[in-house]
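Progress note, sequence design subtask.
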């Protein structure tokens, strides 16, 4: 099965790939691993597939070395490998704000638009490639 194709948002930019936006995809993928919540709809197969093929590999490659239970590390008290960790966030606040990617610290960090919040740091490979950023923003 192919990954979802992005749709246009009417302004020439990318919108959600067939409704599987970052927050929904991340939460959907992690929801499948850690139980459900009434205020977060159960993920579709397409959303889970998008998460597993595009989002989880990007997080694993760029973030898990410092922000995962698997690594035994939690820099800034932030864990990105669990749904609870994403929603709880770390010392700076929640990593994700459901329904508002522009208010999400994770998105702000990977965009490198805030000189005080840039992830991954230069010492860990620096800014993600544009394709990975677009997938995470989608």
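Output:
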């Amino acid at each position: 099965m192919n990954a979802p194709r992005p749709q246009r948002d009417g302004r020439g930019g990318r919108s959600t790939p067939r409704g599987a936006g970052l927050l929904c995809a991340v939460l959907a993928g992690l929801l499948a691993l850690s139980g459900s919540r009434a205020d977060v709809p159960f993920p579709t197969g397409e959303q889970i597939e998008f998460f597993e093929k595009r989002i989880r590999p990007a997080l694993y490659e760029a973030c898990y070395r410092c922000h995962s239970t698997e690594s035994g590390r939690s820099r800034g008290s932030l864990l990105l490998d669990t749904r609870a960790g994403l929603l709880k966030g770390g010392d700076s606040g929640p990593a994700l704000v459901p329904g508002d990617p522009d208010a999400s610290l994770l998105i702000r960090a990977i965009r490198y638009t805030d000189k005080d919040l840039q992830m991954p740091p230069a010492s860990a490979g620096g800014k993600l490639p544009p394709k990975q950023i677009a997938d995470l923003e989608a």
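Residues 17-137 form one domain. Work on this subtask will continue into the next period as scheduled.
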